[in-house]
Amino acid sequence: MSAHPIAMPEPLSPAVIKALSGVTTATITTILLTKGLRNVWMRGTTPLLPGQPRLVGRAFTLRFVPSREDLATPESWASPISTRAAIEAMPAGVIAVVDAMGVTDAGIFGDILCARMKKRGVAGLVSDGVVRDLSGVLGTGLPVWCQGAAAPASVTSLTFVSWQEPIACGGVAVFPNDVVVVDDDGAVLIPAALVDAVVAAAPEQEQKEAWIMQQIENGAALPGLYPMNAETKARYEKETKKA
């Protein structure tokens, strides 16, 4: 296991957080699709509690590998390379993104660790694995997206190895400083280099889809409307410019 990196996520501007907080993850995937990115939705990242708020934050990555008996022990929890040490390195506002390899028979974090994350101002937790101490985790108020809960501790199936390194979460490559948006549809990754482009495109995409919904309410048929043909696009631009 390597020593932990020291690179910390860059703060995300309030303007970017505000802009992306008003955009659904579904819309973000559509925008990224127009830029050639298809694999940005993290499989298995289901809201642990229905109705959790949409969150936006820099990814703070953590990585597990398969359990190895000489390394994955209760004693390892006190190691300098541990989930405890990683949590103490998390800046306020980040979203912890955990590569648990999709393992669902051991909880990566329980109520005590989630309570500490909440206390440190971590915005939320995203994982392709599960948590443990479900009622306690919910009691901490930390928003969590994962595959559910399991009673066993992480060391029964997983070995924690690093943080703030590139990971795979739900089949998606996540790098430190990427941006994560989570809502009822799960977690979507925005590569750091594309954040400004997504922010710029989002209001127009949301407005366009709202206009299309209004046309549906008015009885319009789908062909030529969704996606728009040239005639519909011209009408959309004329009506929205008036507004």
Strands, helices and their partners?
Layout: H1 14-21, H2 25-34, E1 41-42, E2 46-47, E3 55-66, H3 83-88, E4 95-99, H4 111-119, E5 124-127, H5 134-140, E6 144-146, E7 158-163, E8 167-169, E9 172-174, E10 179-183, E11 186-190, H6 195-217, H7 230-242
Parallel strand pairs: 3-4, 4-5, 5-6
Antiparallel strand pairs: 1-11, 2-6, 3-7, 3-10, 8-9, 10-11
Please explain how this structure is put together.
The protein has 243 residues and is of the alpha/beta class. The chain folds into two domains: 14-193, Ribonuclease E inhibitor RraA/RraA-like (Glucose Oxidase, domain 1); 197-242, no CATH class. It is 31% helix and 21% strand. The protein is built from seven helices and eleven strands. The protein has helices at 14-21, 25-34, 83-88, 111-119, 134-140, 195-217, 230-242, and strands spanning 41-42, 46-47, 55-66, 95-99, 124-127, 144-146, 158-163, 167-169, 172-174, 179-183, 186-190. Helix 2 crosses helix 6 (195-217) and helix 4 runs parallel beside helix 5. The termini are far apart.
